[in-house]
Write a structure and sequence with these properties.
The complex is a heterodimer of chains A (411) and B (309). Chain A contains 14 helices and 13 strands. Chain A has helices at 2-5, 7-19, 63-66, 75-86, 97-108, 121-136, 178-187, 215-226, 246-250, 279-284, 295-310, 313-334, 359-370, 389-408, and strands at 42-46, 49-52, 57-60, 114-118, 140-144, 170-173, 192-197, 229-233, 256-259, 270-274, 339-342, 349-352, 373-374. In chain A, the strands form 3 sheets. A 7-stranded mixed sheet of chain A has the order 4-10-9-8-7-5-6, sandwiched between helices. In chain A, strands 1-2-3-13 form a 4-stranded mixed sheet. Chain A starts with a helix and ends with a helix. Chain B has 309 residues and is α+β, with helices and mostly antiparallel strands. Helices cover 40% and strands 17% of the residues of chain B. Chain B has helices spanning 10-32, 36-41, 91-98, 114-133, 139-160, 165-170, 217-222, 252-259, 265-270, 280-297; strands spanning 46-51, 58-63, 66-70, 84-87, 106-109, 174-179, 185-191, 194-198, 245-249, 274-278. In chain B, strand 2 and strand 3 (66-70) form a beta hairpin. The longest helix of chain B is centred in the N-terminal third of the chain and has 23 residues, at 10-32. The two termini of chain B are 22 Å apart. The model of chain B is unreliable at 203-239 and 305-309 (pLDDT under 50). The chains are: A alpha/beta (411), B alpha+beta (309). Chain A binds chain B through residues 3, 10, 13-14, 17, 22-24, 29-32, 34-36, 40, 157, 159-161, 164, 204-205, 335-338, 352, 354-360, 362-363, 378, 406-409, and chain B through 162-163, 166-167, 170, 174, 221, 224, 226-229, 232-235, 244-245, 264-267, 269-272, 275-281, 284.
Chain lengths: 411, 309
């Protein structure tokens, strides 16, 4: 019974609600998953497996919301981070590692000339938008509807009237609607500081969308004409779509690039990279945070970059993701479902053509969780370098059983 | 929002007055079938209007022994003359009187049923809270009354309170079924910032009517209507009204806790006392309104009330 399966998780949650608003807040809230089908608390993890508070084991396709790229507890990354931590992590001044990592990133992420470090993706996107405003002397930020750029007030879903001034100068267009984007630029002519986009569109609760071939050329043209900046929010896709930055995969030419999540395989680290053009704004901007220059995550990041390359990098994740996509779609078709995997192969998400309300997603992902596969019903998934061909095959086989049970009405 | 009437802004007072009008009208109508004395008082037809200048009126009508309520500007009955109008000169008076505090209310007779309407209203207004509080009231009955009140409060809050508008606009449109357990259900349609009651899929009756006659949303889900080849994936697609999401409570007690604002919905979800199926963001949009409506419902007419006056 599901209720017994997560007894400890639910017990901890009952304690949590007394001392933590909502028990678990934000994207980890049980309500974002399917309560009763997924664990609330994870106790440990290794490679592609997570073990929840009740001892249930899952093959994990959420990967710490994308932060795990070379596998949970990757020995090389953990060793590097732990050794640095043992010698001192958060110090008065940064360790020399900071420069090592900055050099690595600047040489790796195509088109970028400098970098600064922070902790969360929100830090990086918010800093990028601030720098764009300072650099251009303008206020308006253009973003795609439904895109996630973090939890700061300028971009979050905390739509409280008291916070409205924080997002007053953020304008939205429908993703890939080039005419709509042009119209926004016309409407805000002379006031646009930047466009911020994720490499591909990955809204929650909806199928993912790849960029129209004309999207990035249009963005470049409009930004040049307006003297606005283009910010690539590569936090979720980073290092899974192209080793030199996801913008390279789509031929985009951003002025600023935000990375986090996979950068240090789960060690807390974000980075904002920029072109020479924006350096003076960054030079003059007060950028700081108590933990932003701690050394251990930087050591972990350096090791993580090495591990990504050693383990096969983007090409391997692409191959694994393609096998998963093709296997799931075929299994769905066999049972008569319009199961469709959208997005890049390494950042997939399954939806059902016949069910935009996601009832089928919930049934499918809930039944997969029963079988030990953590596939989020409402948020895109991630493939990592710790996944194996055997993991993918087992996932597809389980999916085939689940589709058959769904067809028979047993799930 | 401040917890006392005297501290509310004029805009908040308007919202609260709309909520009080709607909740009162719907509760007295719902109480009619739960109390034998009320059944006797509703044996003959009458039409009662509750009115605050500048706000949509609420109507309670008894026709052939069946008492129904409308509020927020809905309903065909609004075009018909009222036997009795209870006119509250201001939103503040409305909020005070309907909370049991002193305030101005002008009874304006308009038809032969004025006396019957007034007697019924007085009795029903006293009976509804008594039924809600009585330990003898079955949980399902309490849940039904509270669901009635909560849905009314949601609709009126969404219609009048600018505070919730951005969050409601952000949520997708669609129809959500709130299932309080024990066959107590309501279907709400959200379009833009507007919420309205719609018939439960499978019923031919009007808004707010006959939830027990409806096709259970969960039952529809479980019926396998979303099997391939038997529909289009969404159980509601086989009905006239498409159900985009289902907020289901484990039992009436769980529903009561959330709908009365005593337990946050996110906590109930985590405790598996409630579940959401289908279009989750649609229900999340309703939660934003529910949070706000709960604050309005908790407003007290007088500060002394806090001390148990």
């Amino acid at each position: 019974m599901a209720a017994d399966r997560f007894a400890r998780s639910r017990g901890v949650f009952e304690r949590a609600v007394r001392v933590i608003p909502g028990g678990i807040y934000g994207t980890k809230s049980p309500g974002f998953l399917i309560p009763g089908k997924f664990p609330y608390y994870i106790e440990s993890a290794s490679g592609s497996r997570i073990v929840d508070a009740d001892g249930n084991v899952f093959v994990d396709y959420l990967c710490g919301f994308g932060s795990q790229i070379v596998g949970y507890g990757n020995p090389a990354v953990e060793r590097a981070g732990s050794e640095r931590s043992a010698r001192g992590d958060l110090l008065n001044q940064p360790s020399p590692l900071m420069v090592d990592l900055a050099e690595r990133l600047v040489s790796r992420i195509r088109g970028m000339d400098w970098t600064v470090f922070a902790k969360n993706g929100t830090d990086a996107t918010t800093l990028a938008v601030s720098l764009a405003r300072v650099h251009t002397g303008k206020r308006v930020v253009i973003a795609a509807e439904g895109a996630y750029h973090g939890a700061a007030n300028w971009c979050s879903s905390n739509l409280f009237p008291e916070l409205a001034p924080d997002r007053a100068d953020v304008a939205f267009f429908r993703y890939n609607d080039l005419d709509g984007l042009e119209a926004l630029f016309r409407w805000h002519r002379g006031n646009v500081a930047c466009v911020i986009l994720t490499p591909h569109h990955h809204p929650a609760f909806r199928p993912q969308v790849l960029p129209d071939p004309e999207l990035y050329p249009t963005v470049l043209r409009l930004c040049e004409a307006e003297d606005a900046l283009f910010v690539m929010d590569d936090i979720r896709d980073g290092f899974r779509l192209h080793p030199e930055g996801s913008h390279v995969r789509f031929g985009a030419e951003p002025d600023l690039v935000c990375v986090a999540k996979a950068l240090a395989n789960g060690w807390p680290l974000a980075a904002l990279l920029g072109t020479e053009r924006v350096r003076s704004a960054a030079d003059s901007f007060f950028i700081t945070g108590t933990y932003w220059m701690s050394g251990a995550p930087m050591a972990a990041a350096l090791a993580c970059l090495d591990e990504m390359d050693r383990l096969g990098g983007v090409a391997r994740m692409e191959a694994l993701g393609t096998a998963l996509k093709e296997g799931l779609e075929a299994a769905g078709r066999e049972a008569g479902f319009g199961a469709r995997v959208s997005g890049p192969a390494a950042v997939p998400f399954l939806t059902f053509d016949e069910d935009p309300d996601l009832y089928l997603n919930q049934r499918f992902c809930g039944a997969m969780a029963d079988r030990g596969f953590f596939l989020h019903p409402h948020h895109n998934w991630f493939v990592s370098l710790a996944h194996t061909e055997a993991d993918i095959a087992a996932t597809v086989e389980a999916a085939r059983e689940v589709f058959a049970e769904m067809k028979a009405g047993r799930v | 929002m401040r917890p006392f009437l005297d501290d509310l802004t004029a805009a908040e007072l308007r919202v609260l007055a709309r909520i009080r009008l709607a909740v009162t009208a719907r509760l007295v109508a719902a109480a009619a079938s739960r109390d034998p004395a009320l059944a006797e008082l509703s044996s003959r037809n009458f039409r009662l209007t509750l009115r605050v200048p500048g706000l949509p009126r609420a109507v309670v009508a008894c026709l052939e022994g069946r008492v129904s309520a409308w509020a927020g500007g809905e309903a065909p009955a609004l075009r018909l003359p009222a036997d009795l109008t209870l006119l509250f000169p201001s939103a503040r008076d409305c909020c005070r009187v309907l909370d049991g505090a002193p305030g101005r209310v002008l009874p304006i007779p308009g038809g032969l049923g004025a006396g019957r309407a007034l007697r019924f209203f007085r009795a029903a207004a006293a009976a509804a809270p008594r039924i809600l509080k009585s330990p003898d009231t079955p949980p399902a009955v309490r849940a039904e009354l509270l669901l009635e009140a909560a849905v009314s409060a949601l609709i009126e809050t969404a219609a009048e309170d600018s505070y919730v508008r951005p969050r409601l606009e952000h949520a997708p449109d669609g129809t959500v079924v709130v299932d309080a357990g024990e066959n107590v259900r309501r279907a709400l349609r959200k379009e833009g910032t507007r919420l309205q009651l719609v018939p439960m899929p499978g019923t031919a009756t009007g808004p707010g009517a006959g939830p027990k006659d409806g096709v259970g949303a969960e039952a529809a889900v479980r019926s396998g209507a979303d099997r391939p080849g038997e529909g289009r994936g969404n159980p509601a697609r086989t009905d006239a009204v498409r159900i985009d999401a289902i907020l289901a409570f484990r039992d009436p007690a769980a529903a009561v806790a959330v709908l009365s604002g005593k337990k946050p919905a996110v906590t109930a979800l985590g405790a598996c006392e409630a579940s959401i199926r289908g279009l989750v963001p649609l229900v999340q949009g309703l939660f934003a309104v529910l949070d706000r409506a709960s604050r309005y419902l908790a407003v007290q007419a007088e500060k002394e009330a806090r001390h148990g006056r």
